[in-house]
Amino acid sequence: MSIGHTLLGLLESGPRHGYDLKRAFDEKFGHDRPLHYGQVYSTMSRLLKNGLVEIDGIEAGDGPERKRYAITEAGVTDVRRWLATPEKPEPYLQSTLYTKVVLALLTRRDASELLDTQRSEHLRMMRMLTERKRKGDLADQLICDHALFHLEADLRWLELTAARLDRLAEAVTAR
Amino acid sequence: MSVRREGPGAPEGSRSWGWSRDLAMGVRFAFTGGREGWIRTLLTAVGVGLGVALLLLTTALPNVLSARHEREQARRDYTYDYTPKPPADDTLVIADLDSTYHGDDVRGRLVQPDGPRAPVPPGLRTFPAVGDMVVSPALKKLLESDDGALLRERLPYRITGTIGESGLIGSHELAYYAGVDGLAAKIDPPNVARISAFGEPHPFAEEAADPVLLLLVLVVFAVLLMPVAVFVATAVRFGGERRDRRLAALRLIGSDSRMVRRIAAGEALAGALLGLVLGTLFFLAGRQIAGTAEVFRVSVFPSYLNPSPALAVLVAVAVPMAAVLVTLFALRGVVIEPLGVVRTARPARRRLWWRLLLPAGGLALLYPMLGQGRENGDFNQYMVTCGVLLLLVGVTALLPWVVEAVVARLHSGGVAWQLAVRRLQLSSGSAARMVNGIAVAVAGAIALQMLFTGVDADYTKATGQDVTRAQMEVSVPDGVPMARVTRELGATKGVRKVVALSEGNLGERRMSADLNAQVTVGDCAALREVATLPSCREGDVFALRGSDYDDNMQKLTGFRTLFLDPADGEEDTESTPVAWTVPRGLKQAQTRLDMTGVKRGGFLVTPAALPAKGAATVHGHVFLGLDPSVPDAQEYVRNTAARIDPLADPMTWSATVESGRFASIRTGLFVGAACVLALIGVSLLVSQLEQLRERRKLLSALVAFGTRRRTLSMSVLWQTAIPIALGLGLAAVVGLTLGTVLLKMTGTSVSVDWVSVLSMTGVGAGVVLLVTLLSLPPLVRLMRPDGLRTE
Amino acid sequence: MTSPTPPPGSLLTASELRKTYGPTTALDGAAFSIHPGEVVAVMGPSGSGKSTLLHCLAGIVTPDSGSITYDGREMATMNDSQRSALRRSEFGFVFQFGQLVPELSCVENVALPLRLNGTGRKEAERTALSWMERLEVDDLKGKRPGEVSGGQGQRVAVARSLVTSPRVLFADEPTGALDSLNGERVMELLTDAARSTNAAVVLVTHEARVAAYSDREVVVRDGRSRDMERVV
């Protein structure tokens, strides 16, 4: 995720102090990982340098949180361009899980045991997310759903692989 | 599949082409719809087939009657010719020896040809030799079985052949021709006579139709045919819900709603056509079975059951057409959408007025004929038939309305009741359809029963015989001594009481007497059966008082000599008058109702008081009281009588006798009603099972959460019982109305025979109960948890 | 596999269950155990024997061999009517579809289990309506099942399964016919309601997102069960 673009976007609604920016970011997007002040400071300096933001005013004192930032015309254009550019879909072609399964088969270990354990782990995570989703607001729900759908996709893959273990074993050992 | 648009601009030619193409497609679907499609088509076909078979049978019935009538006429030995006929080489002496065995009639003839050219009876090639007999196949079988042991005793002849079909009127008829000698001496028309040909000398086509009998026949046919029509209409709807789903799929791939309707009609047509084939097969099979079966003592030969060609063609055309029309009619309230079939959630409330028009129209047609009676000429056959049919169709039109109206007002009780009532509220139409057939049959049957009971008095004659005093009567042939008859019958197993009375006639002159009186000869015990005697000794003679002939008796007792069996005139050579001197000690006796239901008059004479030659002038009758605990008492008596003299004529007494014609209509009604009820039972069972199969998943779920099987079974019972109760109620009302109208038409006083109303509705209810019982095992099977497993 | 003696505190326990339908083996030594208030997901590919396990546990189907104990009672010793009575009073059921009686209104459907237990109509429908309120379908009371959406119908079914306050709720693919939003809502309402009455839930599903509403899962494969909590 591009922190620079996110902070720029947050500035579009009006000028803010660096501290406000961090709080707004954490509230909306930083569920798992809140921003450090340092991150905000370094990002804003970079944006200043590139002319995407400008200083709107400085309050007495020191530190980035004392500065009020405002977005520039170039900044608005940049945000618009970022939003219009589609994200590259993650192909997930390099999978640790797949590697583990094949290795287990090659070394004649119990691959289904591995798959079951992994499924259990996935489900544990899904339970957690589900629980959080039930207690959280709409933003929480959407974020958790995103994760849940990914985990579900993994689980489906686990099921499918489990069902095809025999054929996979034949294929990898024959090679 | 190609999609054809049928816009307003479509040319006329393509429209009819579209019809036939869609119908053809429907026909193809009926046979290619997989296993389910086949089963559905087969069910429809079996249903229609049964209906067609019954229709063909009905159209063949008139032929049966006339075939039997012709055969009967062809083998007639006319013995009512009282002028003596001299023996010639083309004459034959024949004696009628009809008897009864275990309730079945046995047609017996003794034959003695006078010469080589004597007429051979139909079905025989030659005459049986003396001591031999030719029997019908059924009699042969009976005599060879253990059941026939007693009859075997009565027929001491050697079986040398069987009577061919042309000599019999039914496959189960018991008949024989036995060869005897010395029969010529016993000629005594109509029992023994000399004839020169078989066959009715004055053939008559049919008994001139009595208008009331004709009315009965018409109504019987209308009553039998209506339920068959209802049944055929139900049969083409078998499996309707699955069919609807298939039609929806057709809509999805682009058929318009008119096309799917025609395709549906085509499917029904296929079922109906297959049904025609099956029906013909059923009919042919039924014809063979009919040849081996005997219903209500009527048996026929398969060759009798030939439907008249015109009626058969009518059936062949009308049934498939009706199938198509019914299908289109049934789809009227259904919108087939591409994604499923929508029945308008709450169908328009059924309207009453046009439903009332039908029975009202029926009554209006019958009304002008009220009070016409037997004397005022014929009924208009068409008006009668149409009127009766409209009244009965009225039942099928009114029933859905009644069911809907009543069911909507039912309040919920227990769970089973609630489930049933709610289901009926949602689909009262199909419930009403289910019981329509039974309702029509019961309504018709009640009306007929009423008509029968009403005109019973006219066609059933009271015999006057007092069956509490005697149960059998044996008429003793001339020349057989009464003493022997009395002795032998008295010694017969199962006989408790023997009353032997001989009767004759006497007058005041040897020839052409003015005053006549009856003479009754018997011992004192026997005479006490006919009069109250002050005292009685052998040799006594009594003059009877208290009868209608008291005036005559007054005059006759004035004569010293009276003549037994006085001659009728110069030409009367049969009579052999015997002079009888009236004894001095003539006693008076009060007559009483005898066991034949008569208060007799004349003289009572003890045998000793009769002149020696007098015995020949009186004719003997022996009245027998039987022991009811001896089951074959009647057969023992008949055997004894046959041993004494084959011509002795034993009769079983009954309180009433029915006119033969009337009895056969009644028989026809019973046979038909039995077939119709069986047919309707089958269709009820099929639709019941179909309904249950469609709810299989739900039933399993209900059982899963702990519903008692009893609750579900009860709900199935209620679900049938409620519409049946309503249907039978309506049937009773319409039946009584129709019965009343019919009775008024015949000019008979109206009285409701509640026993028959109850028994008819009872029979209808019984069929339903039976069907419910039969559908319970499949229900229990469907309630197994297997239904929960995802398909 | 569990030992024949039920774990302490367990409400419903099964061990060594075997069941064959003709030539197919549905269960081949499956085991199961659930505590009061616990939600256990039974997972596995289709045809693995999940539903058969549920049917055995609920006393709908009798296993060929093996033991099922409910509340200290061995199910094999009960006859059919005793098991039916158990299902009526102690268990609740939700299926994928086709479980609502189409002729009855929604509230009558929900009241049905109470009425089967002999409760009067008025009282049963009052209780039914309060459960329909909890599942947010009380506005559908007069409608017939054919007139409501799939999600609404399923909520009515959940209300019906809970109306007798069962101690065990059996749910066989309860969201199978629903989209994910409706499915989640049904699962939330179902588990919330079950937790509030401390009912145990046996949840048969092949969807991980549905199974995520459970406390633990049991995987059935080829008729054999695997209790994942005990494995890890």
TrEMBL record, chain A:
Pfam families: PadR (PF03551). It comes from the Bacteria. SUPFAM superfamilies: Winged helix' DNA-binding domain. Signal peptide: none annotated. Residues 7-78 form the Transcription regulator PadR N-terminal domain. This is PadR family transcriptional regulator. InterPro entries: Tscrpt_reg_PadR_N, WH-like_DNA-bd_sf, WH_DNA-bd_sf.
From TrEMBL, chain C:
InterPro entries: AAA+_ATPase (IPR003593), ABC_transporter-like_ATP-bd (IPR003439), ABC_transpr_LolD-like (IPR015854), MacB-like_ATP-bd (IPR017911), P-loop_NTPase (IPR027417). The keyword Nucleotide-binding applies. Gene3D superfamilies: P-loop containing nucleotide triphosphate hydrolases. Keywords: ATP-binding, Nucleotide-binding, Transport. It comes from the Bacteria. GO terms for cellular component: plasma membrane. Residues 12-232 form the ABC transporter domain. CDD domains: ABC_MJ0796_LolCDE_FtsE. This is Macrolide ABC transporter ATP-binding protein. It comes from Streptomyces populi. The lineage of its organism: Bacteria, Bacillati, Actinomycetota, Actinomycetes, Kitasatosporales.
